[in-house]
Automatic annotation (TrEMBL):
<protein>
    <submittedName>
        <fullName>SDR family NAD(P)-dependent oxidoreductase</fullName>
        <ecNumber>1.1.1.-</ecNumber>
    </submittedName>
</protein>
<keyword id="KW-0560">Oxidoreductase</keyword>
<dbReference type="Pfam" id="PF13561">
    <property type="entry name" value="adh_short_C2"/>
</dbReference>
<dbReference type="GO" id="GO:0016491">
    <property type="term" value="F:oxidoreductase activity"/>
</dbReference>
<dbReference type="InterPro" id="IPR036291">
    <property type="entry name" value="NAD(P)-bd_dom_sf"/>
</dbReference>
<dbReference type="InterPro" id="IPR002347">
    <property type="entry name" value="SDR_fam"/>
</dbReference>
<comment type="similarity">
    <text>Belongs to the short-chain dehydrogenases/reductases (SDR) family.</text>
</comment>
Amino acid sequence: MSNDQKVAIVTGASQGIGAELVKGYREKGFRVVGTSRSIKPSEDPDLVTVAGDIADPTTAARVVAEALERFGRVDTLVNNAGVFIAKPFTEYTAEDFATMLGVNLHGFFHVSQAAAEAMAKQGSGHIVTITTTLVDHPMAEVPSVLASLTKGGLNAATRSLAIEYASKGVRVNAVSPGIIKTPLHPAEAHETLAGLHPVGRMGETSDIVDAVLYLESAGFVTGEILHVDGGQSAGR
């Protein structure tokens, strides 16, 4: 099998933004390795699925190993898997804390480390992480300290990795969304959530996919935190 075709890994790939990212990369001709706890087997020979919890280091290792064994390379990693729990600070439990650290930070660390090693060896690659605009623009309506704690760390790590790996041919960027219309948000909340954005609407999954694919083709962009948030980060 030829290994000239580019390969993307997408975490949190079974639904919402992740599932649309898989479609977007396949439409651009990438082979894809998608992972999530509930992902189903694929009938597409150019789409490999790996079921598992990305917070588990063995899942991260399997995902990168599958990409290398099946397709011979890793060109892009999209760290899309994430957990968001909105609660007043004093109502967070130890379980909430462990869950968000596990998926948002441990998952990022283990799979990014394995992917970065493979990319550095081949002399090229791109890591993109989905964070949240609440890091830069907290809102009283959406109490989210643990999201800021974990995703804010990912924004900082994005800039640091971009500098560390620039000379190795590996770019590192992030997309910072506003509130996106996914199954996470019930339809009856959409009008209220839309009103939290200066443009007056929630984001669509396609808005995030478009941003990620822009960064994919933007060879002179690294260390960027690209806000796709309907103007939230600019102010209200």
